[in-house]
Amino acid sequence: EADIYQTPRYLVIGTGKKITLECSQTMGHDKMYWYQQDPGMELHLIHYSYGVNSTEKGDLSSESTVSRIRTEHFPLTLESARPSHTSQYLCASSHRGRNQPQHFGDGTRLSIL
Amino acid sequence: DQQVKQNSPSLSVQEGRISILNCDYTNSMFDYFLWYKKYPAEGPTFLISISSIKDKNEDGRFTVFLNKSAKHLSLHIVPSQPGDSAVYFCAASGVYNQGGKLIFGQGTELSVKP
Q1: N or C: which end of chain B has fewer CB within 10 A?
Q2: Residue whose C-alpha is closest to residue B63's, from B39, B71, B54
Q3: How far apart are the CA of A14 and the nearest CA of chain B, in angstroms?
């Protein structure tokens, strides 16, 4: 059973607000990922991390930023939310090494008014 | 360009019968393939994976087949149960992918009817 938690599950907020989406895992995984998914579409990687103090951008351009100060914690921040940021955000983690499955949280569904 | 494709957006199967979900990929550098199941309002749940050195992997009712020459993989569920009704995503990764990122297909919604 995967133990990866995302909060909040749902967030409706006005334009211009600063938002932080939380993601924590208790599996001791080194690698963590953020994906974005629009309804009916595939998941797209927006950020990933190999471990503490490592962050990289994914292949989908995103105005969000991430940090990795602790192994278990990988928050995503939007400094000034816009309606174009409305989407579902999914966090995942995996063990280091090749061919390791990623385990996902239940996601945050974000709506910017 | 879409590197991983699931051409059937939906599939309906009778309980007890076999469900076959298909996935095609274009990048010959992919060497690890996975299937995920997703219920509404939940994140994807890992089901089964296969590396490119194999052509079949089995786990209980779930079997994944890989045909490298055709760049095709399939997920067989036998027997299908109503609780299997969900959206199924195939995903792929390769040695040159950023940090082992997964490339996902668009998903196939499976409906298993009692």
Answers
A1: N
A2: B54
A3: 22
**Mind listing the pLDDT tens digit for each residue in B35-70?**
999 998 889 999 999 999 999 999 999 999 999 999
pLDDT of residue B97: 64
In this prediction, residue B111 carries a pLDDT of: 98
For residue B94, the Cα-to-chain-centroid distance in whole angstroms is 16
Tell me how far the alpha carbon of residue B56 is from its chain's centroid.
13
pLDDT at B21 over 60: yes
DSSP annotation of B29: T
Residue A26 Cα, gap to closest chain B Cα (Å): 16
Task: Establish if A103 touches chain B: CB-CB under 8 angstroms.
Answer: yes
Tokens for A78, please give them: 């939007």
Question: What span, in angstroms and rounded, lies between the C-alpha atoms of B111 and B107?
Answer: 13
